[in-house]
Amino acid sequence: MAETDTQRSDSKPKRVLYGLNDRMPWKQAIFVGLQHLLAMLVGCVTAPLIVAQALDFSPEEQAFLVSISLFTSGLGTLLQVKSVGVVGSGLLTVTGTSFAFISPLIIAGQKGGIPLMLGMSIISAPTQIILAPFLPKLKRYFSPLVSGVVVILIGLSLIPTSMFNIGLGLPNMSEDQAWIALPMAIFVVAVVLLMNALDKPWARMGAILAGLIAGYLACLILGAISPPPIDTRNWLNFPTPLKYGLAFDLQLLIPFIFIFIATTMESIGDLTASSDVSGEPTNGPVYWKRIRGGVLCDGINSMVAGIFGAFPNTTFSQNNGVIQLTGVASRQCGYVAAIALIIMGLIPPVGAIFAAMPKPVMGGLTLILFGLIFAAGVRILHSIQMEHREIVLLAF
């Protein structure tokens, strides 16, 4: 099995233009890396904004949570891609604030504010650190069948989020003009598909960026973009450890631990999809080493995020769709995305400008990306010899 894994790592499939270990011109790496950033940016800032708005936090607190989420996402992405020792998957994968924690975070915030939210995140994050070393021994429970189903469910569960973003409509539009949001999303999808239909490497690598720019310009022409509020007095935001302090409540420990176990399953699915779309093995020693390192990195990054004031982090799915669309799986692009996230976290106005992207534009883009995640799960299942047992489990 080890030989098979090695051979697959060395020889990439035709759908991959640049493999995991391939060096590419830095101009192209920056170009694709920024597309990874744009694809996950809204998802990264949406979760903390949902929590902050549900708890009626002040604008200053909301701005802080968004900035620190970007900063810690950059740190986590850098560690995942670089892979230091046993920590990190070594794949082109990005991390961000997990949507799975929204409900327990809101409950914690209602009981004890930000200190309790951060304290519960830090004390329960070791769940993944403890689980990670044992994942290879538990591989019978995380077989390609399980991973494939999880990847499919991730894609299916995220698609409604895209539709919700499309349904939010465009700013500065009246109720009579609300219908424009759907054609705008379809326009973004059409641009991305058209770029891929050209069947040119440069077109594939620029498809996502082209879709975003085209959608943004179309909204600009329609007058549907509101300039984001920028505080010119605050151009730098240096993270301060334990800025809000910490608090703990044992009654909330079990719900937080349960969500960390659930996100471990989700991370396994995400990393399996990343391996698959990158032309890397989805079984065997190399694969399980990456899974173990990726989950361990998530646990460590969630603890670090809590110390700096951000909520738990996990691997994101969007980058898998970007890899499929661009055909680029090189780690160089991950370094670009990570550094850009860190810089944006230090400069709040930059994050505010990116976050102003109209929701239907992002909805149209993520609709394709999440659909590609679903397709990656189907491909994983297609590689399995489906006997009666496997079909029954799949149906269940």
Helix content: 55-70%
Fraction in beta strands: under 5%
Distance between the termini: 30 Å
Give the beta-strand count. Answer: 2
**Element order: H for helix, E for strand:** HHHEHHHHHHHHEHHHHH
Q: Structural class given helices, strands, pairing?
A: mainly alpha
Average pLDDT, all residues? 83
Strand order of the largest sheet: 1-2
Structural Rg: 20 Å
Largest sheet: 2 strands, antiparallel
Shape: globular
Total of DSSP H or I helical runs spanning 4+ residues: 16
Low-confidence spans: 1-9
Question: Can you tag this structure with a few keywords?
Answer:
396 residues, mainly alpha, globular
Please provide a written account of the structure.
By secondary structure, the chain is mostly helical. Helices cover 67% and strands 2% of the residues. It is built from 16 helices and 2 strands. It has helices at 2-10, 26-54, 59-82, 102-124, 126-131, 144-167, 181-197, 201-205, 207-222, 253-277, 285-308, 318-326, 331-346, 348-355, 359-382, 388-395, and strands at residues 95-97, 313-315. A two-stranded antiparallel ribbon has the order 1-2. The chain starts with a helix and ends with a helix.
Layout: helices, strands, pairs:
Blueprint: H1 2-10, H2 26-54, H3 59-82, E1 95-97, H4 102-124, H5 126-131, H6 144-167, H7 181-197, H8 201-205, H9 207-222, H10 253-277, H11 285-308, E2 313-315, H12 318-326, H13 331-346, H14 348-355, H15 359-382, H16 388-395
Antiparallel strand pairs: 1-2
In short:
With 396 residues, the protein is an all-alpha fold. It is built from 16 helices and two strands.
